Structure formats: C-alpha cells, structure tokens
UniProtKB/TrEMBL annotation:
NCBIfam families: ScbA_BarX_GamBu. Residues 36-164, 208-334 form the A-factor biosynthesis hotdog domain. Residues 1-16 have a biased composition (Low complexity). InterPro entries: AfsA-like (IPR047757), AfsA_hotdog_dom (IPR005509). The lineage of its organism: Bacteria, Bacillati, Actinomycetota, Actinomycetes, Kitasatosporales. It holds the Pfam family AfsA. GO terms for molecular function: transferase activity. This is A-factor biosynthesis hotdog domain-containing protein. Residues 1-21 are annotated as: Disordered.
Amino acid sequence: MTISASQREADAAASANVPSPAHQPLRYEATVPRALVHRAAVAEVFLTDSRPSPTLPDTFEIAAQLPRAHIMGESATAHDFLLLVEVIRQSGVYIAHKYEDVPLDTSFIFRGLRTWLSDLSAIRTGDRPAEAVVTLTCVPQRKRNGRVQALDFHGTAAVNGRIALQIEGGLAFFSKSVYQAMRSRQRAKLEGQTGTLPSHLRADPQTVGRRNPMNVVITKPLLAGGSALSATVIADESHPHLFDHRLDHIPGNLLLEGARQLATASVATLHSIAADGLQVISLDTDFREFAELDLPTRAVATVEQFRQDEALGTLVVPVVVEVTQAERTVASFRLEVAQ
C-alpha cells in the first residue's frame, strides 16, 4: 500500500501533538506499585503518578492523593503532618527506584529530613480527597561503578495547587548483605542488654493530641526538670500503619510520632494549652542509629521560648526531643508547635 504525501504529513502532525511523558498531566486514578514505595498494604500507598519536570533539570514531580480519613489522620480539619511526611518518604524512595535504577531489594535509611509548613490553610481538608504534587530536585551520590549509594533532595509539596511544605532531606541505600552486616555489628555491641520489655500503659490520648488510644505511642509524660518532660516510647508491632510490614528495628515514623506526641504534651503542660489544639508546623530530624525493638526507649523533650513565625502569622514553640537507648542517642528531633 502506498501512503500519500498528504497522509504522511497528517501522521507527522498528529505525532507532533502527542505530549512527551514530561508534559503529560499527572494522574490520580490509581496508586503506583506498592513495592516501589516499600509498603505491604495497597491502602498505605499514597502516590499515583510521576514525571520528570518539564522545566527543571534533575527534578521530578510526584502525584499523591491525600485521604480524607486515615487511621493516623484524626483531625477533621487538616491533613495529618505525619502522613505528609510519609508522602515525602514514599516520593524519595519511588524516585530512587524509578528514575535512579536503585534495585528493589535495596534497604533504605533516612539520613535526615527537614520540612516546614509555609501555608497552614493549604493543608485544610475539604469535601473530597486532596491532590498533592511533591516536586523534588535530586542530587545522587554514586559509587565508582555508577550505582547510586545516596540521594539528597530538596523541593516543595503542593496541595490542591497551593504550596504547603518546603522540603530538604536525604536517603542512603544499602545492599542486603551490607545492611545485614551493619545490623549484626550493632546487635553484637548490645549483647546482654536486650530482652523482653515490660508492658507499658499508654498516655491518655487527649494529653498527647490524639483521640484513638491505638495511635498513642508514649507513656504518660513526666516532668524531668526545668522545661523538660520525658516518656517511654511504646513500639506496638500490631499497628497497621507504623508497622505496615515486619521490621527488625523501630521505624523512623514511629519515633517521629513519639516525638510529636511528647512535644505536644510538653507544650500543653508547661503553657496550660489544650493538646488537641496544637499542631506541628516544622520538623528537623537526625537519625543516628537503629532503634532496637528489644531495648527500652526513652524520649526527653526540652521546650524552648515562644517565637513569632512571620510567614505563618502565628506564635510557635520550638521543642527539642532526644530519643535514647542504652545511654546512647538514636535519634533527635527539633519540632515547632503552633496553636
């Protein structure tokens, strides 16, 4: 069959009008494969699509749907801060697998994360699930063989078209053999110190800004001198979000939730404010070592002085939370809490 010149011109014109992957609109119809974000439950996958940025080099746009209801999202008026952090985590892991060719059986460790709200009204819930876009510019660190061993990133998260969060962070990647060697070395150092832990009573949900007792991950906060309060972190491995799959250590999001609860309770106690009226507006994390499931975990929060956040137009209280096991710091957090 002979194709006429006019037909060839029409076909060329049609091809020219097909947008490239970078210019395709992001979709919110279905989630990405759960393996690409290291989740076992499909319900715990928030990402739906991605594309390289059409205008910025080394930058990727990740679509996510924020549910109106979630086991951790107890507020009826705003999207939960921990879930927003989980969307950021999933975005970093997804970029590493999809765009940097990091193997699926690689272990990931959050080297650090700093994120802060730039628009409180942008995270308010509406009458339907919100559409988020996480935009991250990535700087991979490669081995001599070209494989990525770490990924630094910075960017923003927009909710329904409005920039809500600023983001800076980094991930490190380890093969199974390297990860197992790291864990074996740490476990060897703790020989004779680990064992079955006693059952602890959880704090009253209202005192830590929670409603569902299952979501409480610390004991009753106690005064620890000056402007400090302390509590024991409770790692309940039956929790469907914090332990979406089996782990050999306490996950970072549980430590973060414990820090948030202790910071909230500390500010509420020292300033006579209802805990359920407080929310975290910024977070700076430093994960130093693996937190073991069979060691007592103590968290101490030190409340600092109020300051005025000019961008948000509200008073905020900085709180530093140190998490320790066997007299060593495994993680530290600096949070800012606003009313």
